[in-house]
Amino acid sequence: MHVKRLTLTDFRNYRDAELDLSEGVTVFVGPNGQGKTNLVESLGYLATLGSHRTSVDSAMIRAGADSAVVRAALRHVDRELLVEVQLNRGAANRAQVNRSAVRTRELPRYFSSILFAPEDLALVRGEPSTRRRFIDELLVQRSPRLAGVQADYARIVTQRNSLLKSARAQRIKESQLSTLEIWNERLVELGSELIDRREALVGELAGPLRVAYQAVAGVDQHPRITQRLSIHGAVGDDDEPDAGGGAAFRDARFPGSAGNGQGESAVSAPSTSEQFRAALAGVRRKELERGITLVGPHRDDLLFELNELPAKGYASHGESWSFALALRLASAQLLRAESVIGDPVLVLDDVFAELDAARRRALASAIGDFEQVLITAAVLEDVPQELGARLVKIRAGEVASE
After folding, report:
1. What CATH number labels 1-112+339-402?
2. CA 216 to CA 361: how far, in whole Å?
């Protein structure tokens, strides 16, 4: 799949913009602050229903405007599709496919994209929320239905937190909180599905991640991802991984996994929902004291390892970048392997400026055979010449020349 035409109305600093695109590599070049990232951010929103720069949709609406529109004409083989999203201030967003209204959360069914950005270093070195966002966005791209599950789970957490805060303020006894059990069941139902889906995805990423890491780093340092689960006590009350939790959760297994290595079948292990309920019971008093939900996928983390050591804290700057790039490349390979709509569109937002010459060449080689690659760069010389790109100059929210 590739984007044939991108049209923006009141998006970021673009009042009106229309750009024809083609297969292969396109580089948007221009000084910083002119709108290069805004262009590719709009495509990222169509694919993931979010931005890599902000968590607030209204921030993408041009100052003084009530709404912004992103419209993309897509082509896959001989089929063409028009997808559109309207971001509204103070109202629900709206979406269309071929001029027919659809639910916004259905957009990832029609378009997929993988974004590489300088912010990706935070995947390795940053907060747990960054890693949760990474895995959840990839989940939605592979199974758009999960956008609804994620939204419903977040709503349950909010409502449950309100009940806990109210109980704390009114000093309601634990034995009088029968309403909490109703929220608990829904929390466990939705949360267990997200935990299991994340675990399955982590397993599928293992092979592509190792191949991608070796491609960009030139060595095999045994990159590995495992979940750190709050229902196992691997994440503390401050939403940070427990310092001593590494060995305890590293070999945790779920139904459908390889077992515990000691002959015990996966069938006999407690289900995720059973473990979730037990964890909730164990933190009940603490939740009432603090007024927040302390366990569940909203507090989990991912552990990234190189040579059996945590990448966060042990990996060098170059190794951290290699891991971040490998995560994106592995994600792209997964989407490519299973997609019925063709390759995901690869977007590299000023990422070459962050890399040394060797990693630039390695990344260029790894992405060169994707159907469409869009790159932003303030300095054209940062982009490896072997990519053979078409150039588009951007100036002050306008396409200055091609």
Report:
1. 3.40.50.300
2. 8
The full set of domain ranges for the chain reads 1-112+339-402, 124-337
- Beta-strand relationship, 309-310 and 301-306: antiparallel
From 207, 219, 206, 201, select the one nearest 315 (Cα to Cα). 219
Tens digits of residue pLDDT in 240-296: 655 444 333 333 334 334 444 444 444 568 999 999 999 999 999 899 899 999 999
Those residues whose C-beta lies under 8 Å from the C-beta of residue 241, and which sit 6 or more positions away, are: 128, 228, 234, 235, 301, 303
For residue 282, the one-letter residue type is G
At the topology level of CATH, where does 124-337 sit?
Answer: Glutathione S-transferase Yfyf (Class Pi); Chain A, domain 2 (1.20.1050)
The CB density around residue 278, as the number of other CB atoms within 10 Å, is 12
Q: How far apart are CA 166 and CA 177, in angstroms?
A: 11
Helix (H, G, I), strand (E, B) or coil at 248: helix
Distance, CA of 60 to CA of 123 (rounded, Å): 23
Q: Which residues of 82-114 are buried (b: 16+ CB within 10 A; e: fewer)?
A: bbbbbbeeeeebbbbbeeeebebbbbbbbbbbb
Bridge pairing between strands 345-349 and 2-11:
unpaired
SS3 label, residue 86: strand
- Under 8 Å between Cβ of 87 and 50: no
Give the pair of three-digit tokens for residue 201. 């995805």
Question: What ranges in 143-257 are assigned the alpha helix state H?
Answer: 146-170, 178-217, 246-250
Binding residues for ATP are 30-37
Answer yes or no: are the C-beta atoms of 12 and 35 closer than 8 Å: yes
CB of 30 closer than 8 Å to CB of 395: yes
Tell me how far apart the alpha carbons of residues 291 and 285 are, in angstroms, rounded to a whole number. Answer: 10
Known binding-site positions: 30-37
What is d(CA 68, CA 85) in angstroms, rounded to the nearest whole number? 8
**The whole model's pTM is what?**
0.88
Q: Are strands 390-395 and 24-29 parallel, antiparallel or unpaired?
A: parallel
Model confidence pLDDT, tens digit, residues 80-118: 999 999 999 989 999 999 999 999 999 999 999 999 999
HSE-up (13 A, CA, CB side) for residue 52: 25
> What's the first-to-final CA gap in the chain, in angstroms?
22
Backbone angles phi, psi at 20, to 5 degrees: -85, 135
pLDDT tens digit string along 186-219?
999 999 999 999 999 999 999 999 999 999 999 9
